[in-house]
Amino acid sequence: MIRTIVTPALVCAGFLWSAGSGVAVTATGRGGQGGKVVTGRTVWDGVYSEEQAARGRSQYMQACASCHAADLRGDSTAPSLIEESFSFQWGDATVGDLLERIRTLMPSDRPNSLSSQAYRDVVSFILQSNKFPPGAKELDAEPEALRQILIVATRPAAKQGQ
Predict the structure, then answer these.
(1) Fold classified for 26-156
(2) What pLDDT digit, counting tens, does each position of 86-131 carry?
(3) CB burial readout 61-84, b (16+ within 10 A) else e
(4) What is the pLDDT of residue 161?
């Protein structure tokens, strides 16, 4: 009886969360394209600069590496920020979602303690560490612009030759 009530409630809560947060959830779940066509900007469009990622590396080493490790692989209490773990957690979310989550929760002992620029730089370093290509411009400072950049694990088909 309880299981019958809990399961629909969890599905409903998950749907409301995804609808309210602007996260696109595909039929295959999070963490990839699921065969869909991706339109609009993605992390494969070079949304950060090399210089920004270099600044982000320095900020990361000072504020994040003690928990998430220098290689971004995390430990038993802090999640990995690269490869499959990153793709599973953030695939089909936006760069704005990632930035907001990091800003409001990290560092865990002093959330929102870095400058806005430092948080964008750290996100740039995380994107670089996940082998998303750099571009000529830095991550936009406008939160709404960052919510328009989708994180997808594999390069969308329309962008394969780029």
Answers:
(1) Cytochrome Bc1 Complex; Chain D, domain 2 (1.10.760)
(2) 999 999 999 999 999 999 999 999 999 999 999 999 999 999 999 9
(3) eebbeeebeeebeeeeebebbbee
(4) 55
Stretch 7-22: mean pLDDT, rounded?
39
Predicted pLDDT at 158:
62
Least Cα distance to 103 among 79, 119, 123, 80 occurs for 119
Domain residue spans in the chain? 26-156
C-beta pairs of 72-80 under 8 Å, 24+ apart in sequence: 72/126, 72/129
Pull the structure tokens for residue 34.
């699921």
CB 72 within 8 A of CB 82: yes
> Residue 99, SS3?
helix
